[in-house]
Automatic annotation (TrEMBL):
GO terms for biological process: methylation. The lineage of its organism: Bacteria, Bacillati, Actinomycetota, Actinomycetes, Pseudonocardiales. Residues 101-193 form the Methyltransferase domain. This is Class I SAM-dependent methyltransferase. One of its GO terms (molecular function) is methyltransferase activity.
Amino acid sequence: MEISHWLRPDQLDNNLAGVLADELFAPGWLSGVEVFERVFTEVVQSVIDDPLRAWTTFYDNTLARVRECWSAPAGCAPHSSIADFAPLYRRVLRLVPPGRVLDLGSCFGFLPLLFAERGEHSVIASDLAPGSMRLLETVAATRGHRMPTLVCDAAQVPLPDGAVDTVTAMHLLEHLEPARGNAVLAEALRLARRRVIIAVPYEDEPNAAFGHVRTFTSAELQHLGDSAGHPCEVTDHHGGWLDIRKDG
Protein backbone atom coordinates (compact mmCIF):
# COMPACT_ATOMS: atom_id res chain seq x y z
CA MET A 1 0.00 0.00 0.00
CA GLU A 2 1.23 3.50 -0.85
CA ILE A 3 0.38 6.17 1.72
CA SER A 4 0.12 9.83 0.69
CA HIS A 5 -0.14 12.80 3.03
CA TRP A 6 -0.02 16.58 2.98
CA LEU A 7 1.57 17.26 6.35
CA ARG A 8 3.67 20.42 6.62
CA PRO A 9 6.56 20.73 9.11
CA ASP A 10 4.44 22.95 11.38
CA GLN A 11 1.82 20.16 11.52
CA LEU A 12 4.28 17.43 12.49
CA ASP A 13 3.47 16.30 16.01
CA ASN A 14 2.17 13.32 17.99
CA ASN A 15 -1.38 13.89 16.81
CA LEU A 16 -0.18 11.83 13.85
CA ALA A 17 -0.75 8.75 16.04
CA GLY A 18 -4.47 9.42 16.27
CA VAL A 19 -4.76 10.25 12.57
CA LEU A 20 -3.13 6.97 11.55
CA ALA A 21 -5.22 4.98 14.03
CA ASP A 22 -8.49 6.58 12.87
CA GLU A 23 -7.88 6.67 9.12
CA LEU A 24 -5.85 3.53 8.43
CA PHE A 25 -6.09 1.09 11.32
CA ALA A 26 -9.64 1.48 12.66
CA PRO A 27 -11.17 0.87 9.18
CA GLY A 28 -8.95 -2.20 8.77
CA TRP A 29 -6.71 -0.97 5.95
CA LEU A 30 -3.68 -1.77 8.11
CA SER A 31 -3.17 -3.74 11.31
CA GLY A 32 -0.51 -4.64 13.83
CA VAL A 33 1.69 -2.67 16.21
CA GLU A 34 4.87 -3.16 14.15
CA VAL A 35 3.12 -1.90 11.01
CA PHE A 36 1.80 1.11 12.94
CA GLU A 37 5.30 1.99 14.18
CA ARG A 38 6.84 1.59 10.73
CA VAL A 39 4.22 3.75 9.03
CA PHE A 40 4.50 6.37 11.79
CA THR A 41 8.29 6.58 11.35
CA GLU A 42 8.09 6.74 7.56
CA VAL A 43 5.54 9.55 7.64
CA VAL A 44 7.57 11.62 10.12
CA GLN A 45 10.76 11.24 8.09
CA SER A 46 8.99 12.05 4.83
CA VAL A 47 7.94 15.52 6.00
CA ILE A 48 11.51 16.86 6.28
CA ASP A 49 14.41 15.39 4.31
CA ASP A 50 16.86 15.39 7.22
CA PRO A 51 15.76 12.65 9.68
CA LEU A 52 17.14 14.35 12.81
CA ARG A 53 15.53 17.66 11.89
CA ALA A 54 12.26 15.84 11.21
CA TRP A 55 12.31 14.24 14.66
CA THR A 56 13.40 17.38 16.52
CA THR A 57 10.57 19.25 14.78
CA PHE A 58 8.17 16.48 15.82
CA TYR A 59 9.29 16.78 19.46
CA ASP A 60 9.33 20.59 19.47
CA ASN A 61 5.83 20.80 18.02
CA THR A 62 4.43 18.12 20.33
CA LEU A 63 5.80 19.66 23.52
CA ALA A 64 4.67 23.14 22.43
CA ARG A 65 1.16 21.82 21.83
CA VAL A 66 1.12 20.03 25.19
CA ARG A 67 1.76 23.42 26.81
CA GLU A 68 -0.92 25.03 24.65
CA CYS A 69 -3.38 22.43 25.94
CA TRP A 70 -2.36 23.29 29.50
CA SER A 71 -2.84 27.02 29.03
CA ALA A 72 -6.00 26.85 26.90
CA PRO A 73 -7.66 23.40 27.10
CA ALA A 74 -10.68 24.57 25.10
CA GLY A 75 -8.42 25.34 22.15
CA CYS A 76 -7.01 21.81 21.97
CA ALA A 77 -8.23 19.57 19.19
CA PRO A 78 -10.68 17.22 20.95
CA HIS A 79 -9.87 13.50 21.09
CA SER A 80 -6.40 14.07 19.65
CA SER A 81 -3.38 12.19 20.99
CA ILE A 82 -1.88 15.35 22.45
CA ALA A 83 -5.16 16.49 24.01
CA ASP A 84 -5.57 13.03 25.55
CA PHE A 85 -2.11 12.99 27.14
CA ALA A 86 -1.63 16.66 28.11
CA PRO A 87 -3.78 16.42 31.27
CA LEU A 88 -1.99 13.20 32.25
CA TYR A 89 1.40 14.87 31.96
CA ARG A 90 0.21 17.88 33.93
CA ARG A 91 -1.13 15.75 36.75
CA VAL A 92 1.87 13.45 37.10
CA LEU A 93 4.22 16.45 37.11
CA ARG A 94 2.24 17.79 40.06
CA LEU A 95 2.12 14.45 41.88
CA VAL A 96 5.80 13.50 41.69
CA PRO A 97 7.90 15.17 44.39
CA PRO A 98 11.40 16.45 43.58
CA GLY A 99 13.98 13.68 43.41
CA ARG A 100 15.11 10.83 41.21
CA VAL A 101 12.47 9.42 38.86
CA LEU A 102 12.38 6.31 36.68
CA ASP A 103 9.80 6.33 33.90
CA LEU A 104 8.83 2.86 32.65
CA GLY A 105 7.68 2.35 29.06
CA SER A 106 8.73 5.86 28.03
CA CYS A 107 8.13 5.41 24.27
CA PHE A 108 9.02 8.82 22.74
CA GLY A 109 9.88 10.16 26.18
CA PHE A 110 7.73 13.28 26.26
CA LEU A 111 7.16 12.89 30.01
CA PRO A 112 10.88 12.46 30.88
CA LEU A 113 11.63 15.58 28.82
CA LEU A 114 8.98 17.53 30.71
CA PHE A 115 10.47 16.34 34.00
CA ALA A 116 13.95 17.37 32.85
CA GLU A 117 12.77 20.84 31.87
CA ARG A 118 11.37 21.49 35.35
CA GLY A 119 14.81 21.17 36.93
CA GLU A 120 13.46 19.50 40.09
CA HIS A 121 13.95 15.91 38.99
CA SER A 122 16.77 13.63 37.91
CA VAL A 123 14.96 11.38 35.45
CA ILE A 124 15.78 8.07 33.78
CA ALA A 125 13.74 6.99 30.76
CA SER A 126 13.30 3.32 29.88
CA ASP A 127 11.74 1.32 27.08
CA LEU A 128 12.13 -1.97 25.21
CA ALA A 129 12.84 -0.17 21.92
CA PRO A 130 16.54 0.72 21.47
CA GLY A 131 15.77 3.12 18.63
CA SER A 132 13.34 5.12 20.75
CA MET A 133 15.86 5.49 23.56
CA ARG A 134 18.67 6.52 21.20
CA LEU A 135 16.37 9.08 19.61
CA LEU A 136 15.31 10.41 23.01
CA GLU A 137 18.93 10.84 24.14
CA THR A 138 19.73 12.71 20.93
CA VAL A 139 16.68 14.98 21.08
CA ALA A 140 17.24 15.67 24.78
CA ALA A 141 20.80 16.76 24.02
CA THR A 142 19.56 19.20 21.37
CA ARG A 143 17.30 20.69 24.06
CA GLY A 144 20.18 21.01 26.53
CA HIS A 145 19.38 18.01 28.72
CA ARG A 146 21.36 14.92 29.57
CA MET A 147 18.82 12.10 29.48
CA PRO A 148 20.00 8.73 30.85
CA THR A 149 18.05 5.90 29.24
CA LEU A 150 17.72 2.17 29.77
CA VAL A 151 16.76 -0.37 27.11
CA CYS A 152 15.04 -3.04 29.17
CA ASP A 153 11.93 -4.99 30.01
CA ALA A 154 9.90 -3.02 32.56
CA ALA A 155 9.77 -6.18 34.69
CA GLN A 156 13.57 -6.56 34.67
CA VAL A 157 15.20 -3.18 35.15
CA PRO A 158 18.99 -3.31 35.69
CA LEU A 159 19.02 -1.03 38.74
CA PRO A 160 19.44 -1.87 42.44
CA ASP A 161 16.65 -1.94 45.02
CA GLY A 162 15.48 1.54 45.97
CA ALA A 163 17.40 3.13 43.11
CA VAL A 164 14.94 6.00 42.65
CA ASP A 165 12.48 8.01 44.69
CA THR A 166 9.52 7.57 42.34
CA VAL A 167 8.63 5.17 39.53
CA THR A 168 6.06 6.27 36.94
CA ALA A 169 4.24 4.05 34.44
CA MET A 170 1.95 6.09 32.22
CA HIS A 171 -0.32 4.03 29.97
CA LEU A 172 1.92 0.97 30.13
CA LEU A 173 -0.07 -1.75 31.89
CA GLU A 174 -2.80 -1.88 29.23
CA HIS A 175 -0.09 -3.18 26.85
CA LEU A 176 0.63 -6.18 29.12
CA GLU A 177 -1.22 -9.35 30.02
CA PRO A 178 -2.17 -9.46 33.73
CA ALA A 179 0.75 -11.65 34.83
CA ARG A 180 3.24 -9.35 33.08
CA GLY A 181 1.54 -6.31 34.55
CA ASN A 182 1.84 -7.78 38.04
CA ALA A 183 5.55 -8.40 37.43
CA VAL A 184 6.03 -4.79 36.34
CA LEU A 185 4.28 -3.55 39.48
CA ALA A 186 6.51 -5.76 41.64
CA GLU A 187 9.58 -4.37 39.87
CA ALA A 188 8.40 -0.79 40.31
CA LEU A 189 7.91 -1.42 44.03
CA ARG A 190 11.40 -2.87 44.26
CA LEU A 191 12.95 0.17 42.62
CA ALA A 192 10.99 2.98 44.29
CA ARG A 193 11.92 4.33 47.71
CA ARG A 194 8.85 6.53 48.04
CA ARG A 195 6.13 6.24 45.41
CA VAL A 196 4.86 4.32 42.42
CA ILE A 197 2.44 6.22 40.18
CA ILE A 198 0.51 4.39 37.47
CA ALA A 199 -2.03 5.69 34.96
CA VAL A 200 -4.17 3.63 32.58
CA PRO A 201 -6.92 4.50 30.09
CA TYR A 202 -10.48 3.38 30.60
CA GLU A 203 -11.58 1.61 27.42
CA ASP A 204 -14.55 -0.57 26.51
CA GLU A 205 -12.24 -2.67 24.31
CA PRO A 206 -8.44 -2.71 24.09
CA ASN A 207 -7.19 -0.43 21.29
CA ALA A 208 -5.26 -2.90 19.14
CA ALA A 209 -3.73 -0.19 16.93
CA PHE A 210 -1.82 1.08 19.97
CA GLY A 211 -0.94 -2.42 21.17
CA HIS A 212 -3.43 -2.56 24.03
CA VAL A 213 -4.31 -6.08 25.19
CA ARG A 214 -6.44 -5.43 28.29
CA THR A 215 -8.80 -2.94 29.86
CA PHE A 216 -9.09 -1.63 33.40
CA THR A 217 -11.80 -0.49 35.77
CA SER A 218 -11.27 1.49 38.96
CA ALA A 219 -12.10 -1.66 40.95
CA GLU A 220 -9.38 -3.60 39.12
CA LEU A 221 -6.89 -0.82 39.82
CA GLN A 222 -7.86 -0.89 43.49
CA HIS A 223 -7.31 -4.65 43.61
CA LEU A 224 -3.89 -4.16 42.01
CA GLY A 225 -3.02 -1.51 44.57
CA ASP A 226 -4.23 -3.60 47.50
CA SER A 227 -1.94 -6.41 46.36
CA ALA A 228 1.09 -4.14 46.71
CA GLY A 229 1.01 -4.18 50.51
CA HIS A 230 1.43 -0.40 50.90
CA PRO A 231 -1.01 2.50 51.33
CA CYS A 232 -2.53 3.38 47.98
CA GLU A 233 -5.15 5.58 46.39
CA VAL A 234 -7.13 5.09 43.18
CA THR A 235 -8.52 8.18 41.46
CA ASP A 236 -10.07 9.03 38.11
CA HIS A 237 -8.62 11.77 35.91
CA HIS A 238 -8.80 11.18 32.15
CA GLY A 239 -8.55 7.49 32.99
CA GLY A 240 -7.54 5.64 36.13
CA TRP A 241 -4.67 6.43 38.50
CA LEU A 242 -3.00 4.25 41.12
CA ASP A 243 -0.73 6.07 43.58
CA ILE A 244 1.20 3.75 45.92
CA ARG A 245 3.10 5.35 48.81
CA LYS A 246 5.92 3.26 50.19
CA ASP A 247 6.85 6.09 52.55
CA GLY A 248 3.36 6.12 54.05
